[in-house]
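Table S2 (continued). Query chain:
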Amino acid sequence: MTTRDDVRRRTGGGRGGNGRPSTPPEPQTSLPERLLAAREAKGVDLYRAERDTKIRARYLGALERGDYRELPGAVYTKGFLRNYALYLGLDPDEVLVQWRRERGDGGAQGEPTINVPKPLSAPRKGFTFSIGLLVAAALTVGVLLFIGYLGFQVMRFSRPPEVAVTDPSAAVTTVDDTATAYTLRGTSDPGATVSITVAGGQPILTTASAAGTWSADVELRRGKNTFSVSATDPQTTKTAEKPVDIFITVPFPDVLVPTLTVDQPADGVTVQNGAIPVQGSTSNAKTVTVNAAFTGETAAGTKPTKTPAPPSPQTATIATDGTFNIPVELTAGHWTLTITAASSEGKTTSLTRNVTVSYKGVNLVVSVKGGPAWMKVWVDGQLDPRVGAGKLFKDGKTMAFRGTDSVEVFTGSSGVTYFTLNGTAIGKLGKSGMPETWLFAPPPADPQQTNHR
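Corresponding output:
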């Protein structure tokens, strides 16, 4: 019986049970096509299949092309087919039967098989990693971090820094009477500039650490010491809404002699202006008084016709930090200044300063007392720019003019215009309501009345 007869016998001789020709069966998909379609349905390429099955991609490609000549042999081919079918979700026995049928070797059932490395379990369909997915995830994380950073910066720029003082723990503190310094400690925003303002002194600056802590040493004087603590963000320049005030008191002993320091004037100094500032500092004192005494010839080396009258004693107002400033007006000549600090208990401390006043040129102080006066002033023959072509001075106004050769003053009311020349008070030179012009030259020349308008 031929093969054609056998096929006819198994298919009913080409006719149905009623003798009519039967409908030909649908053509079956070839094994290579089934393998290719199954892999594509799985959504993997040959290189992914190679990693999962441990079968080289060239052999898998040969199976999908039906090019069995590139395979190492029938035994290996059957092993490859069995494992590849399991990986693709196909029936391995059916795949082997179809392979034998298509190869024309349907009766070969006894060939031994070889165990080849089992493929990895086929991953379940679902979430898989890819380069695009990793890039998208990285971008998402980056965007979230950037948004968080922006939010942090907005919050930072929208609020001022905070500042607190932890040592001393109380705003008002009294320390031992021997204390001369104290270490202030506190907290603020990390990196903030903490400023400690001391009355009458330069601010003390420090920077908060990364942990938000800061400290600074401050000097203490006897009595109450006041410190104002604030903070500034160096990037936003915002300052703490409210500074923290700290009061540290160093007690005075029961009876203590005042201390006194005179910074100006220096002993033996020669000045060209009689307005001498007496400046310094004291402690344990209630008042500071300056007395001036004329002690010798004038700067020109000639004895005055009469001894200049000393100015009245000047008493200073002592600031909270113990400093004082007393202006003293002196005429030409040698003077001795006595500065005395006195305590409430009557204890005193005194220092002296010798000063020589040597005027140069014309130093004229003009004061308006008792009513307004319209004035015009020429310094060395030129109109003074502060007065210009004329200006009305109100009662109580005082101005100083300095010239090399002369100062000339026109006043609309001579009786309310008072003059002090090189430290010597001349007073008024006319009557109220009388317009007059007076020319002042370096002493000993007397003032001269002119018609200059």
